[in-house]
Design a protein that fits this description.
Order of helices and strands: HHH
Helix content: 55-70%
Largest sheet: none
Low-confidence stretches: none
Structural class: mainly alpha
Shape: elongated
Oligomer: single chain
Number of helices: 3
Number of strands: 0
Mean pLDDT: 93
Radius of gyration: 23 Å
Length: about 80
């Protein structure tokens, strides 16, 4: 484990304590979870960008052409106003 010291505004610290307490977890656990969630989002974004670089518009259109041209089911339609 590593120790990290940070300075945060008092209002943010109060919210942090309140939320951690409400969830029944320690401040350390709350912060670790928040960091893990943020890292996951950023890593997923990078992964998707790399996957997109390997994409092919021609292959996409070939696959899309195989989709039947039928009317959608009533429960799949967006209601019109």
């Amino acid at each position: 484990m590593s120790i990290v010291q940070i300075q945060i505004p008092d209002s943010l610290q109060k919210s942090l304590y309140d939320l951690a307490s409400r969830d029944g977890i320690s401040i350390d656990q709350f912060i670790s979870t928040a960091i893990a969630e943020k890292l996951s989002v950023l890593m997923t974004e990078n992964y998707l960008k790399e996957r997109a670089k390997r994409g092919s518009r021609a292959k996409y259109e070939t696959i899309l052409a195989k989709v039947p041209d039928v009317e959608s089911e009533p429960h799949d339609r967006i209601p019109t106003v």
